[in-house]
């Protein structure tokens, strides 16, 4: 899932690493500090530090998912658009075909591997402490079958279910896999459709697709996917480079305004926005411009990311910052962190916070057994545990990129080599249409 070497675009990998970290932080907060997602903890009370604008972006994982959708559109379009601008349509079509063919196995195999890991942990009973936690998010664990054949059958079902109903009991965080796959296939089809039109009109068309999904109330995988296509095209546009080069003062100022405004809008709270003046004003500003019954938090994250992305394109310094070695290192592990963090949170982190002893179930007044919930020890204990958890998480993700990802890559290559045709028969690229219809409409004539 790397972006390759298509010019100064490595900042997208850094952005992806930032997104995976946001997803981890938001799930930690959902598990033990759910009120942080509100505008403030209670009406007529001052907000906590992480409930303030800008800072709350760090714990609102919506932006992380939005970044994944944006990056998917950007990466899928990057190489074909560059080849189109070089009049290398044959190479572009070959690139699209290969990418589309590899897309599903490159998503499916890591997803399946993470599901098998969670399944093994479940059947070994290692989620038992999480089942007794007083955190609703942590206590959502997969059902343990206890015998081999029912367990294997459930594993096969859940591995496929994520691609059908967007749900996987062994790893609920994988719900994004199917919409990301659907988004990429739509973009591949779009890229073929716009292959032979001028760049300015191709940009206009991608903006039209973005507007379509805006009006269709799809603020993540549709809207942001085609915004990623538009940003990739914008970055290849010579006028963009001229503007950045010639406007040495205006370009940085405009970039700063866009990034600042984007993160402010992306700070929109998930609940009780009316409790704070800044978020209530954002509601009244955004809602008239959105479709009926909009998902306000998702739209706010999407709009904020859109503005920030344009600001990054206008700022070489921001691109260099996002392309730093540290962020690129974390970006390389972003997908692995996304796949592993839920399982590790419900095992290692849960054991650190609650201990490893499972309390006995208790009987209620009617004599029925009820799960005994272990009490959360407090934020100070959690912070101390996180000092050890994050190195373990990213160490595990690094090991995943060294062993599991290469295996998935090899399996994908073997599958592609198995099913692709003999290269001696040609690649069958799509030629430019050169057929015109006769004025009388009775038949075609071929253009010279």
UniProtKB/TrEMBL annotation:
High-level lineage: Eukaryota, Fungi, Dikarya, Ascomycota, Pezizomycotina
Pfam families the UniProt entry points to: Acyl_transf_3 (PF01757)
Record domain Acyltransferase: where: 10-355
Gene Ontology molecular function: any one: acyltransferase activity, transferring groups other than amino-acyl groups
Domain of life, per lineage: Eukaryota
Name of the protein in its database record: Acyltransferase 3 domain-containing protein
Statement: the UniProt record of this protein carries the keyword Transmembrane: yes
Transmembrane segments: 21-39, 59-78, 107-127, 185-201, 221-237, 249-268, 296-314, 381-401
Keywords: Membrane, Transmembrane, Transmembrane helix
Ranges in a coiled coil: none
Organism in which the protein naturally occurs: Bimuria novae-zelandiae CBS 107.79
């Amino acid at each position: 899932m790397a972006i390759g070497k298509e010019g100064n675009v490595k900042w997208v990998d850094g952005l992806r690493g930032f997104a995976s970290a946001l997803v981890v932080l938001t799930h930690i907060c959902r598990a033990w500090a759910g009120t942080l997602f509100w505008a403030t903890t209670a009406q007529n009370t001052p907000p906590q530090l992480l409930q303030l604008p800008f800072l709350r972006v760090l714990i609102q994982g919506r932006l992380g998912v939005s970044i994944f959708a944006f990056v998917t559109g950007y990466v899928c379009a990057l190489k074909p658009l560059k080849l189109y601008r070089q009049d290398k349509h044959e190479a572009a079509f070959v690139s699209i075909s290969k990418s589309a063919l590899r897309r599903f196995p490159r998503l499916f195999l890591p997803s399946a591997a993470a599901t098998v890991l969670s399944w093994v942990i479940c059947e070994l009973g290692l989620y038992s402490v999480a089942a007794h936690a007083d955190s609703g998010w942590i206590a959502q664990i997969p059902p343990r079958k206890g015998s081999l054949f029912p367990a294997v059958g459930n594993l096969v079902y859940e591995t496929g279910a994520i691609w059908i109903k967007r749900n996987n009991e062994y790893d609920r965080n994988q719900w994004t896999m199917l919409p990301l796959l659907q988004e990429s296939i739509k973009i591949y089809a779009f890229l073929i459709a716009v292959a032979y039109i001028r760049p300015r009109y191709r940009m206009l068309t991608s903006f039209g697709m973005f507007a379509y999904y805006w009006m269709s109330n799809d603020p993540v995988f549709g809207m942001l996917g085609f915004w990623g296509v538009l940003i990739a095209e914008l970055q290849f546009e010579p006028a963009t480079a001229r503007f950045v080069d010639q406007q040495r003062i205006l370009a940085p100022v405009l970039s700063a305004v866009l990034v600042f405004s984007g993160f402010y809008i992306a700070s929109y709270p998930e609940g009780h926005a009316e409790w704070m003046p800044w978020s209530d004003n954002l509601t009244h500003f955004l809602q008239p411009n959105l479709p009926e019954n909009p998902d306000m938090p998702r739209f706010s994250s999407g709009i904020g990311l859109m503005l920030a992305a344009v600001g990054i394109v206008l700022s070489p310094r921001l691109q260099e910052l996002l392309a730093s070695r540290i962020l690129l290192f974390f970006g390389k592990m972003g997908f692995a962190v996304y796949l592993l963090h839920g399982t590790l949170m419900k095992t290692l982190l849960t054991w650190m916070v609650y201990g490893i002893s499972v309390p006995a179930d208790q009987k209620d007044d009617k004599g029925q057994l009820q799960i005994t919930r272990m009490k959360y020890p407090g934020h100070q204990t959690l912070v101390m545990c996180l000092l050890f958890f994050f190195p373990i998480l990213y160490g595990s993700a690094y090991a995943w990129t060294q062993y599991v990802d290469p295996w998935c890559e090899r399996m994908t290559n073997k599958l592609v080599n198995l099913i692709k045709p003999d290269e001696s028969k040609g690649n069958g690229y799509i030629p430019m249409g050169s057929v015109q219809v006769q004025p009388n409409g009775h038949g075609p004539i071929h253009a010279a």
